[in-house]
Amino acid sequence: MASHIVGYPRMGPKRELKFALESFWDKKSSAEDLQKVASDLRASIWKQMADVGIKYIPSNTFSYYDQMLDATAMLGAVPPRYGWSGGEIGFDTYFSMARGNASLPAMEMTKWFDTNYHFIVPELGPDVNFAYASHKAVDEYKEAKALGVDTIPVLIGPVSYLILSKPAKGVDKSFSLLSLLPKVIAVYKEVVSDLKAAGASWIQFDEPTLVTDLDSHHLKAFTATYSDLASTLSGLNVLVETYFADIPSEAFKTLTTLDGVTAFGFDFVRGTKTLDLIKGGFPSGKHLFAGVVDGRNIWANDLAASLNTLNALEGIVGKDKLVVSTSCSLLHTAVDLVNETKLDNEIKSWLAFAAQKIVEVNALAKALCGQKDEAFFSSNASALASRKSSPRVTNEGVQKAAAALKGSDHRRATNVSARLDAQQKKLNLPVLPTTTIGSFPQTVELRRVRREYKANKISEEEYVKSITEEIRKVVVLQEELDIDVLVHGEPERNDMVEYFGEQLSGFAFTVNGWVQSYGSRCVKPPIIYGDVSRPKPMTVFWSSTAQGMTKRPMKGMLTGPVTILNWSFVRNDQPRSETCYQIALSIKDEVEDLEKAGITVIQIDEAALREGLPLRKSEQAHYLDWAVHSFRITNVGVHDSTQIHTHMCYSNFNDIIHSIIDMDADVITIENSRSDEKLLSVFREGVKYGAGIGPGVYDIHSPRIPSTEEMAERINKMLAVLETNILWVNPDCGLKTRKYTEVKPALENMVAATKVIRSQLGK
């Protein structure tokens, strides 16, 4: 029985790639230095899988930024503004597309399906001259082969690539991206031919869009594409991999009848109904890659249950055609549990990170072959039983409080228009009030202070003094810049979710449980293992300290319940909605304590609300109902004069705008500039928004500093579709990833642009 891994984390167990990338971007190391770190990481990953016994090991899942950007480079689909003139695409062009540069904005970035991973959105049109411009897939296959490891090269499938793309600026929005398939397929044929020549016997195409709601036009594109590729693919075993959800029945029929395809991969963790489709008919002689080990969470696999599923599948497809796999790439989980020295042994026994998951995959494959490791299976069963019976998992009081929420929809008693009037009387803000999203740059010194405090190398008094001084600097800077509503800069927080999870019961934390979000950006999701409650106030001290330094309004900064949920590794023994309601009650307590402390503006970030939206439309209404309800719970008890903000970023919000309105926040700040102001189109189409809104005027994920004129132009575009009295001016997102040398001039220009427009409005 064979085993397979869809993909593997890239950053390394100690974030080696992150530090190498940032050193290269800061011109502290060479391209050769970066390539050496990457090569060492790839070799380590391939060797690890080979040593465990994995048969089908992936290559070309490593990326310096993002696999979709890698596909764009492979296809030579570089937007003209980057000045690429042909040849092999190098780091300068590649990273300019990803991050922008001093003179050019980056390409749009958005969420990869319903994960916290981001991808760079291809910009395409009828005039794109596709060309084979990156040989990365072939180079990495050869690299692994030279190390004695025969891999499956992995490519983003051509149809999914186009479906996930967007028309470039200036291209009519009705342009059919799928009309580009013949040009794209021509490049794929070159890549496949090179891989065959290099000795590849298998190739994997990731076509995850097959699990979404596709119409017949899209499904026909899959049929036509693989029919066109069939002669080039002849002689290869071809795996088409899907993940993240059940595959719809029509898509299943299309997939399993594709020309030239010999194997199909399915997610049996999130795709619980796919088994029924396979029972209804699976093509004879084809391989089934069964994703029974969860690639998106960190809980140990229920090996006995997975073995039952695999036995059922074996009865349908045959022993020699069944391959045990992960549900998706392990990119979405932490790297290795061995590196966790501070987790207590009980919780640690419940977990499996990427390194442990490949062992689980192989153990299941061996068990199907009659080589079951009884001790391993027994240990797994004991860990599952321990988790189920542990008293630390359940808090009866919390469960009762959450259950009681279902009798109300928790709306504030007064409508938003009346609330905004009450708030303006109290805050006395100018037209087009300016603010930032929350965080300010996280300097080396600031990180050192937090690190030394956690390691007990400095006292609490020294820590408080240092953080207070940092807050003072941020407050003074904002006042000098003449920003209207201030933030304290969040110097006490390494991460917006981790900070709150550390202070809530029911959470556990890792030392090295890092997961890539985009580029070099890594997050360390907390682990929600039990019922959630708030033992004591979490932010009141720092918000009150900051408010005491200024007469201007100081925002209290909180992370909302849906974002805490979606950016954590969540317990899988109860519905996610139940856990979210528990978190909402904890945030509600914090909101009310902030209000009592005199904080008049409270921001409850829901950056990840859209991210958790199910991929199938039939399941979306239920999610939005409990997610939006959870947000409203947090602030239902505040006075009309307390202004509630929320923030969202880097997703497509247009299709959930009515749910955003239903959140009933007083002000929403939302990413806008990097997505070519796509958000504004929903207002041009007639959606009425009566609350305050701040579409971002510049992209904080790029080092580029926009001019005053550019930001003034953005504000004018907003005023063309939004009322003056509701518009706020702010960046796209928090500033923690930027340097002060970038932040200060960008905010200066933002405030200057606002004053220019105020002056024009005054006339």
TrEMBL record:
UniProt cross-references to InterPro entries, sorted A to Z: Cbl-indep_Met_Synth_N, Cobalamin-indep_Met_synthase, Met_Synth_C/arc, UROD/MetE-like_sf
Residues where 5-methyltetrahydropteroyltri-L-glutamate binds: K18, N116, R521, C522, W567
Chain residues that bind Zn(2+) 1: H647, C649, E671, C733
Cobalamin-independent methionine synthase MetE C-terminal/archaeal domain segment(s): 432-755
Its biological purpose: Catalyzes the transfer of a methyl group from 5-methyltetrahydrofolate to homocysteine resulting in methionine formation.
Similarity field: Belongs to the vitamin-B12 independent methionine synthase family.
Official protein name in the record: 5-methyltetrahydropteroyltriglutamate--homocysteine S-methyltransferase
Organism: Lupinus luteus
Lineage, top ranks: Eukaryota, Viridiplantae, Streptophyta, Embryophyta, Tracheophyta
